[in-house]
Write a structure and sequence with these properties.
Pathway: Amino-acid biosynthesis; L-arginine biosynthesis; N(2)-acetyl-L-ornithine from L-glutamate: step 4/4. By secondary structure, the protein is α/β, with parallel strands linked by helices. Helices cover 37% and strands 19% of the residues. Strand 16 and strand 17 (360-363) form a beta hairpin.
Length: 391
């Protein structure tokens, strides 16, 4: 008999009832160190006082009115994002998946309105993850994502990750945009080198294409800059944001330049819940913290400490781990043992990690992780590795 919750997840037998900072409490009272942050969502940790206050204050006044009316909290968050990024305009969604849908629509509508309706193709890369909507799975193109869900949405050209020559060769008079994650998350914590991001920006400029960045997982301070593309010194035309922007509240956004968004006029897109007062009140509180240069400096300092400890962990357990990958507090441990076995052993040692492709475990701790948390992370991951070695 099918369970009442559709069984599309292989869920761990854990029932968390409370969270504080980087810690989760299970129903039986055990305390787990959370190095997953709900898959890079709880950017400021669990139950951050500023987020609790923002949500509570707003909940006592107004939850929802719809986008038929002005929403002051939405305007405030849009203004903050425009102030701190390349963007001229912002549309709010409820998730990264919804952000992907709009990014695709925006790129195609841009060229339609310029009198080039044939320019609908978007170049993407293997190992990518852009959500589980029809556009998202078609953009990723992997068998795992698309099998059984045809016919697929057309208009995506899939290339090998890191193949710059392939990008140039794939461009035709039907090409509209290039879509890429500056750091692949689900794909195994694979950063795109700065030189390659710069080259992609140059290719887009030379061929009149739009550059779409998916910073759903790597954005909002996760790599030590507000957005990961800043390390390469480039800007996109369109950017997808979600996860950390709401600090745990469902929230996403599409950021764009005025030129890229020029086709999105009244009636071309909408959302019932997107940009509601609750979500945007929390998003404003998140932005106030994550956009602070002093906060980002601390993220980089702690990221260096954590990476140093992880390098030592790899050296101490060469039969379990191969290397450390990633940037900032978006890190991965490439495993020699089964990454799923490592994640499961972590549960026994009261530490949460997240599996990814390429036999990697992801470490996506809250950006508020403390030095004591980092020391405890090493202790628990070391015990996890020893357990895997013993099996």
């Amino acid at each position: 008999m099918i369970p009442s919750v559709l069984p599309t997840y292989n869920r761990a037998p854990l029932h968390f009832v409370k969270g504080e900072g980087a810690w989760l409490t299970e129903a039986d009272g055990r305390r787990f160190l959370d190095l997953g942050s709900g898959i890079a969502v709880n950017a400021l940790g669990h139950a951050h006082p500023a987020l609790v206050k923002a949500l509570t204050d707003q909940a006592q006044n107004l939850w929802h009115v719809s986008n038929l009316y002005q929403i002051p909290q939405q305007q405030a968050l849009a203004d903050k994002l425009v102030e701190h990024t390349f963007a001229d305009t912002v549309f709010f969604t409820n998730s990264g998946t919804e952000a992907c849908e709009l990014a695709v629509k925006m790129a195609r509508k841009h060229f339609y309105d310029k009198g080039q309706p044939e320019r609908v193709e978007i170049i993407t890369f293997d190992g990518s993850f852009h959500g589980r909507s029809s556009a998202g799975i078609a953009a990723a193109g992997s068998e795992k994502m698309v099998k059984g869900f045809g016919p697929l949405l057309p208009g995506f050209v899939h290339l090998t990750f890191g193949d710059l020559d392939g990008v140039t060769n794939a461009i035709t008079d039907r090409t509209a945009a290039i879509l890429i994650e500056p750091v692949q998350g689900e794909g195994g914590i694979r950063p795109v080198p700065d030189a390659e991001l710069k080259a992609l920006r140059q290719i887009c400029d030379e061929h009149g294409l739009l550059l779409i960045l998916d910073e759903v997982q790597c954005g909002m301070g996760r790599t030590g800059r507000l957005f990961a593309h800043e390390w390469a010194g480039i800007t996109p035309d369109i950017m997808m944001v979600a996860k950390g922007i709401g600090g745990g509240f469902p929230l996403g956004a599409v950021l764009a330049t005025e030129e890229a968004a020029s086709g999105m006029t009244a009636g071309t897109h909408g959302s019932t819940y997107g940009g509601n007062p609750l979500g945007c009140a929390v998003g404003c509180a998140v932005m106030d913290h994550v956009s602070d240069p002093a906060f980002l400096a601390e993220v980089n300092r702690k990221a260096a400490l954590l990476r140093q400890r992880l390098e030592g962990l790899v050296a101490a357990h060469p039969e379990v781990f191969e290397e450390v990958r990633g940037s900032g507090l978006m890190l991965g441990l490439k495993c020699k043992a089964s990454n799923l076995d490592v994640v499961k052993a972590g549960y026994d040692n009261l530490v949460i990690t997240v599996p990814a492709a390429d036999n990697v475990i992801r470490l996506l701790p809250p950006l508020t992780l403390t030095e004591d948390d980092i020391a405890e992370a090493f202790t628990r991951l070391d015990a996890t590795a020893r357990q895997v070695e013993a099996t």
